[in-house]
Amino acid sequence: MQEIQAKMKARAKELLESGQVARVIGWKKGEFIYDNSPATFESVEELDNFVYDYFCGSNLSKYLIAESKKPGKTAVFLKPCDTYSYNQLIKEHRINKDNVYVIAIECLAKLNAETIKNLADGFVTGVSVEGDKVTISSPYGEKVVDKKDVLLTKCSTCSKTHVAGDEQIIVYNFEKPSTDRFEKVKELEAMTEDERFAFWRSQLSKCIRCNACRNVCPACSCVKCVFDNPASGISAKANDDKFEEQLFHVIRAFHVSGRCTDCGECSRVCPQNIPLHLLNRKFIKDINQTYGEYQAGEETEGKTPLTSYTVNDAEPNEVVNGGK
Amino acid sequence: MLKIAKSKLNDLYAKINESMGLFIPVKVAGEVDYRVWSEGKEVSLETLKTVKSPKSMFFPQTENLMKFVKEGKNIEIIDVREDFDQRKPFVLFGVKACDYKAIEVLDKVFLADPVDTYYQDRREKTTIITTACSKPEDTCFCSVFGIDATNPLGDVTTYLDNDYLYWQANTEKGENLTNLVKDLFENGGEEKVAEIKENAKKVLDCLPFKNLDLSKFKPENLNELFNSDKWQELSEACLACGTCTFVCPTCQCFDIRDFKTNKGVVRFRCWDSCMYSDFTQMSHGNNRTTQTQRFRQRFMHKLCYYPSQNGGLYSCVGCGRCVNKCPQNLNIVKVIKALGDK
Ligand code: SF4
Ligand code: SF4
Ligand code: SF4
Ligand code: SF4
Q: Strand, coil or helix: what is B67?
């Protein structure tokens, strides 16, 4: 990983020094080993804090909506999953792509700081990755765990490779294990309606309506969300049980269906660890089944299953039954 | 000092629950929050940082204030406070030292003139049982605010080890509660408690944030802090999600809105966040037009504005929830470090 970081930092330095770009979006170090933040670097000096490691899970593509409108070029480091969000944002004309320089970077799958913290009894003093094992140190001792058990949810079933990039930084040619990303969706489908309702009720009863899921989502790029508009007549701030559990998250999942690239940021940021990605994946699975395989963000142009009509489209009753 | 075997705690909860409501950290779908206790729930007194703080017991996230019911040409005004005398007293169990201090911070806001009667009713009806921390976490920095995690106050203080819960009443309310449940307890535990405190102190002594320097955050430095050029960089990754404000035990802002029903209007309040674009919306718009300004408001309020009006009391208690939960890892510690040096 350090090798990837060194190459990225060197590239960022070159690009800034030569004036090819005005800024670079990457990650900067935090207070612990596990709390890096997205950051914009505008000078070589600022790169002192530059970091790239197993705790750079956040998706940087959405920051480009604002940054690509600034004067000068913006370079951005994108992991495989992030390149899908990037393409989708271009398709929706949210990013000025002439102003962006994409460096596609290898990811090696990112770790979940919260899982690791729990394993360390809340006090992490060290984390090191060696092949498929992770060593977690704390004042209470050391634990060696399987890497697959401490990955971010989004990374544990990811098989994505880059779909955008003006250049690439790939060192290890890390092979992603093949897993079925629909496994949990299938489990939910196999439940009875009551069981499924109980599952979502208990999950969504935790929601604090912070909107982190929406604000981080690259598909949620409306300039003003209807739920933030006091004139819309929707009491968006009230964390009311019924509205909460039956409407908000379902509306949001519908709203991003066909555009959600399955980047998994919603589940990563949720302070209550609600598996929101399962709602989106259910829609993705249904779209695949009903209209044929489709992956949002693979292309920057072209028709999408939910916004185009073909004579072979499924009849409504098939769709309803398909949604079972 | 009294003690009860952990295996018998369920009897204690059931006993309290006979005559009072009981709010306690409960695990639901993997996350621990204060919820109403009932038989069979998975209690977790050990959890230090419930996702939401216990403030929601006194200041719920959404709360009806009054109702207007329309009948023909008449509008009847229903004051929901008229039902308050039917409310049962309740016990809030498991409050950590930081969260207990946070209640003091909230009291200064809600119980100052004019008193917030909705908050006051719940506050007066509550007996608070605190639980000392045995294993502080790396994001804890309560000691910076003079809080002793091993010795929280409250009506009753409890301590935990592997086998027992130890119980010490501190106030009249605490004594009354003790009398109610005394039969379940046996005497003893002083030595064990001393040991628990000793062990926790060892952890507190090696916490990474224990030496945070707050000396810069004084009212006389307000302008300098406000005008610092560091806010831009500190806030650049902020998503404006408000997670930090909703998990914070001292954030106290709310909005009041009307909800139209078929028969009239329900006026409610709900938590609001200074991180939101429509916060304190005025006819000309929001007076803070950028996210950097909104971000600055949150931390200036905690570290400067609130203390300047409350005799130097900070409105951060170092619970570390915002450190744990910010999706992009921005937080008050980074602010204190960036602005506090020199
Ligand atoms: S991030 Fe989680 S808690 Fe916040 S609004 Fe979304 S689902 Fe609710
Ligand atoms: S500081 Fe973090 S938690 Fe708070 S609003 Fe910004 S992104 Fe959300
Ligand atoms: S500002 Fe952060 S650390 Fe301070 S009391 Fe609030 S949530 Fe806890
Ligand atoms: S901040 Fe202090 S009182 Fe709060 S949970 Fe941590 S150690 Fe306990």
A: strand
Instruction: Tell me whether residues B62 and A238 touch, CB distance under 8 A.
Output: yes
Contacts of B53 in chain A (CB under 8 A): none
pLDDT at B49 over 80: yes
Asked if residue B330 has its Cβ within 6 Å of ligand 4, the reply is no
The H-assigned helical ranges of A120-192 are 153-156, 183-190
Q: Do B51 and A271 touch (CB under 8 A)?
A: yes
Helices (H), chain A: 2-17, 64-67, 80-91, 113-119, 153-156, 183-190, 193-204, 212-216, 241-243, 249-256, 265-269, 277-291, 316-322
Q: Are residues B163 and B33 in the same domain?
A: yes
- CA–CA gap between residue B268 and residue B109 (Å, rounded): 19
**How much is the pLDDT for A241?**
66
- What percentage of chain A exceeds 70 in pLDDT? 94
Best substitution site from B234, B321, B326, B335 to test ligand 3's pocket, by max atoms within 8 Å of Cβ? B321
Residues B60 and B103 in one domain: yes
8 A C-beta contact, residue B200 and residue B132: yes
How far is residue A1 CA from its own chain's centroid? Answer: 20
- Whether B58 shows a pLDDT value over 80: the answer reads yes
Compute chain B's Rg from CA coordinates. 22
Is B232 found in the same domain as B148? no
Q: Which uninterrupted H or E stretch holds B299?
A: helix B291-300
Same domain, B126 and B16: yes
Query: What pLDDT, on a 0 to 100 scale, did the predictor assign at position A235?
Result: 59
Reported ipTM: the value is 0.93
Do B178 and B67 reside in the same domain of the chain?
yes
Does the Cβ of B239 fall within 6 Å of ligand 2?
Answer: yes
Would you state the pLDDT for residue A319? Answer: 65
Q: Domain ranges in chain A?
A: 1-110+151-177, 121-150, 180-324
Residue ranges making up the domain that contains B31: 2-204
**pLDDT band at residue B281, thresholds of 50, 70 and 90?**
confident
Nearest ligand, CA B61: 1
pLDDT band at A244 (very low <50, low <70, confident <90, very high): low
Q: Which of B204, B234, B264 is the last residue of a domain?
A: B204
Residue B158 shares a structural domain with residue B15: yes
Please tell me which of the candidates A205, A239, A269 has its beta carbon nearest to residue B28.
Answer: A205
User: What is the average pLDDT value for chain B, to the nearest integer?
Assistant: 95
Report chain A's mean pLDDT, rounded to a whole number: 92
Contact B128, B92 (CB under 8 A): yes
Of B329, B340, B341, B339, give the one whose Cα is nearest residue B139. B329
On whether the CB atoms of residues A271 and B245 are closer than 8 A, the answer is no
- State the DSSP string of B132-172: --SS--TT--GGGGT--TTS--SSEEEEE-SSEEEEEE-SH
- pLDDT of A175: 80
CB B333 within 8 A of CB B138: no
Q: Which of A27, A64, A123, A263 to mutate to test the interface with B (most CBs of B within 10 A)?
A: A123
Q: Is the pTM of this model over 0.90?
A: yes
Domain contains B271: yes
| B252 CB within 6 A, ligand 3 | no
C-alpha span between A268 and A263 (Å, rounded): 10
pLDDT above 90 for A233: no
